[in-house]
Amino acid sequence: MTGFSQDHKVSFKSPRSFATVFKSGIKETLFPDDPFYFFKKEPSSLRRAKLAMNYFVPASEWLPKYNSKLFMYDFLAGITIASLAIPQGISYAKLANISPIIGLYSSFVPPLIYAVFGSSKYIAIGTLAASSMLISSTLEEKVSPIDNPDLFLGLVFTATLISGLLQLALGLLRLGILVDFLSHATITGFMGGTATLICLQQLKGIFGLKHFTTHTSIVDVLRAVFSHTDEWRWQSAVVGIIFLAFLLFTRYVKEKRPKLFWVSAIAPMACVIIGCVFAYFAHAEKHGIQIVGELKKGLNPLSFKDLNFDRKYISAPIRAGVITAFIALAEGIAIGRSFAIMNNEQTDGNKEMIAFGLMNIVGSFTSCYLTSGPFSKSAVNYNAGAKTAMTNVVMAVCMLLVLLFLAPVFKYTPLVTLSAIIISAVVGLIDYQKAYHLFKTDKFDFLICMAAFFGVIFISMETGIMISVGIALVRALLYVARPTNCKLGNLSNSMSLYRDVEQYPGATGIPGMLLLQLGSPIYFANSSYLRDRILRYIREEQDISNPEENDIEYVLLDLGGVTSIDTTGVEVLFEIQQNMDAKKIKMILINPRLAVMEKLIPGKFIDKIGKHSVFLSIEDAIEACKYSLKSLKETNGENGA
Amino acid sequence: MTGFSQDHKVSFKSPRSFATVFKSGIKETLFPDDPFYFFKKEPSSLRRAKLAMNYFVPASEWLPKYNSKLFMYDFLAGITIASLAIPQGISYAKLANISPIIGLYSSFVPPLIYAVFGSSKYIAIGTLAASSMLISSTLEEKVSPIDNPDLFLGLVFTATLISGLLQLALGLLRLGILVDFLSHATITGFMGGTATLICLQQLKGIFGLKHFTTHTSIVDVLRAVFSHTDEWRWQSAVVGIIFLAFLLFTRYVKEKRPKLFWVSAIAPMACVIIGCVFAYFAHAEKHGIQIVGELKKGLNPLSFKDLNFDRKYISAPIRAGVITAFIALAEGIAIGRSFAIMNNEQTDGNKEMIAFGLMNIVGSFTSCYLTSGPFSKSAVNYNAGAKTAMTNVVMAVCMLLVLLFLAPVFKYTPLVTLSAIIISAVVGLIDYQKAYHLFKTDKFDFLICMAAFFGVIFISMETGIMISVGIALVRALLYVARPTNCKLGNLSNSMSLYRDVEQYPGATGIPGMLLLQLGSPIYFANSSYLRDRILRYIREEQDISNPEENDIEYVLLDLGGVTSIDTTGVEVLFEIQQNMDAKKIKMILINPRLAVMEKLIPGKFIDKIGKHSVFLSIEDAIEACKYSLKSLKETNGENGA
Asked: Where in or outside the cell is it found (chains A, B) (predicted)?
């Protein structure tokens, strides 16, 4: 009997120690996925050391088990992504306004680093269109890439180093949480806006313009295109449109027949080769078709001395580095996560950040700029049958051969071919279907997405992303400042189901009582709202109910959904209680959770209302209130008689 | 029968229209207290116009009912607060480094405006020590009050105008929500730090120093005090300590015998009078005791032309105006709310903001600086028996008489007396008991409080408040990024109570099922955390349970506490479902709320898992799962046989 009733009492045990609460808070905040779970289970210290090694250097786990059969798969996939890496490397470097050779360098060193430290089997390392564009547009505010290419390049490396350091720091401090604040809606809008801008910028290449704007806003770009109509070259445009049509056709083939993905994967490389041959034999340059120009043979030179921390310029690489670090992480982690889910594996975002960070830090010392795991390239890698991170090594070896022997060949690549490759690569980023989906399911997410999109195309890439994140944060704060709460009613008299009366209009109230369900933490940002709202519920209820017979005598607060409370919240509970007291209404608490009880007990609120006013379930509370309502009426009746 | 089972089904009705959701969202966000509630109930349009008038000009409601008996109470209270207004006005003006007469002006016009538009009966209008100090310290960065007093004064008026406009705008836009972000912890720390600084600054007055620092940080102030020991005047210090002892004694009397509150209320006025008489007869100035100096007779001059919007200086008054607007609102609204709760009345914070805003706008045109409803003065007003806002009018009339006839008398007020009055007034703001209470109940709130306190005393008032609010916001975001969630267990087999197994260690799991309770909205900032956490729960559970017999087949998610979900959240549900699918685990949703269903239906998630996987109560869900577990085993058994 005692055991039974004990079971149904609210637990009033004294709060856990600060250290316990703090430790569990830190653990939930920074280690929600418990990465050392397997490690802790292992008793042998030798095995533990090995597990730790495997954790920090994933290559140490798969490499010993590696065999020639796996290599065959990885070799084919590696060749495929290398054929994509060459044209994309050259193109995106042009987008970043740096020498195309840097794009090739960037597909050599970083993939090797990732192969050692990265944990995803399918990610293919490479440069990103959006980041290339963002680095360039941010740095151009300080230094012109045309007038001062060396300084500009130095700042690009500096931005890469800053990105890498930031990524490494975020990973080590397990602050992957910050990347969560870039919502899908923000990324969809940002990518769409950036892709639009990039496509427009390619009009320069397509029309063979020599003068162009350094601004990225749509107005400036269109003005630049149409103010130099005299520079338009029809030859260039014809070649560009042919290449573009070819590339888009291969994309279409891939979509219709996913097995033919390799057609679209090698198409850019084919374009580059055809373009080079055509330009070489047709002396294209004389006919208004610009070519890439001299590319030096040889491996990545060291770039320590190019890093530039001059106070005059440093703000630009810092801004570019910070923003691109987040964008690169968001893309790289999202793709890694998608593959993990598809294959029912686990990812640790923070560990991936460390790998990306190391890759960019080493990259910045070896003439590479920002790299990540681009979505398109990684998807090709996966489809081509990649089995381990060895594909990145194969790609790097291909790049090594290109850099040592073939680089000068690409001198003849027509710029218009690169423009066509860029357009066909980024046009898929304009995800209008996703935007429509957002519109259908969540108008606020759609607003966040559109803010990023229009911010990017009309103001600047930085501003666009910041406005969008700002709106998303305001919404996050509104969620906490205006938590949902509702009045509960009984769904059917025979059962003890109490649900939101708005959602289930059949739910009926209990005479003499008002049952409210509160959600979310109660604390400074929402406590005065909750007070106003609760008092308004009482006022409304008093208005409806017959003042003679069924006035409210109990307000029951279901705290089951209240996950925590702070001191302001406790004070507001006191205020509400005082106000109710004046109205002769008793406050009943139902099912307060652990973290809430740990504040209510030292805050003396439980002492104030008494332990008898705290119940474990709605039923118990209503039963007890009904009983005392009845006895109250009987007493009144006796007095009246 | 149909009716019965209908009652227990989850409602799958199609989402409400966007307009409906948007309207109710706006209403909850901006009008949580439903200020026009009484207004809407009224059918007659004439009565409605009158109610609207009463709402916007509260004086129109109480003035017609006003009578001589009420006036007697208000008159006495008004005289009492006027006797407090004179010394405080002079003192705080000195704190703001402006002429003492401005302090007297500020107790004349603003109270009249408040009497018309303000809705609180007990608030007494006056200047605030903390705001005076903050305005001065912010403006001093741009202009010296000693070298250029007229320009400085102009900027003080400009800051006041900006404060007023901001307060008015916040009130009209019903953005009272922003004031909620100044938590009690922040205000406690800020007030304590400011009071400490103000007390230290008074060492200048107490020791009669002539040279002093314009910085507010504790280090600068102490250095200034001790680097000019040659200027110390023992006469001044003796007089100061005597006054201070007297004032603190009257405070002590008030605390011991609350009925004698008037002793401490008139004590500052008594000090000023005694000080004036003493200084006049003893020629105090010749003995090292500085006096206030010339005060002109006459009413507030207009100050339109003093307002200064020069681009060179404007950033300082904007900063000062914005921060003091919030501080003044926080203090004024908090005190109004306290009185309302004590007297079981309702307050509308947004309406009060409009009154404060109008009062400061008009004030800035009539040589007044920032005013609000200071806590101490309002408490005196309440204790002195104030019945309506007429007390403010009585005080204003007293100030009128003082300005017209008595101002020059206060010329002889010794500065040291003012310092003693300031110290005794602000020393009560150092609320170490509250800080200790915060420490006991909530370590994070204590950290927020200490950040404000040390930020204010070691860096600057602005920085202190910003760091503190910043930490509080980070916590608010952490709440949404890391929502609490728990595993539920059955408390006793006979009853259908499912509670947190951590809080109630007696709760037992259900074989083959994992019951999880999620709290808070699910959206971009926390969705990937929730995915990781849910997958970890599954992993941990699979580890514990015997893999042969009782492997998990169902994961039941109790969504009762999930108040909303965004598109990222829905996508993550898909990811979790996909992952579980691979592990052959079925996902069951329990009691999704209205706002959540409205996202899950168009997001096609309900289609994905099927309506049969959504239950209204934990019991129903467990019942159904148990049944299918049983039938599954039977089938297996048959197959095996």
From this structure: Membrane
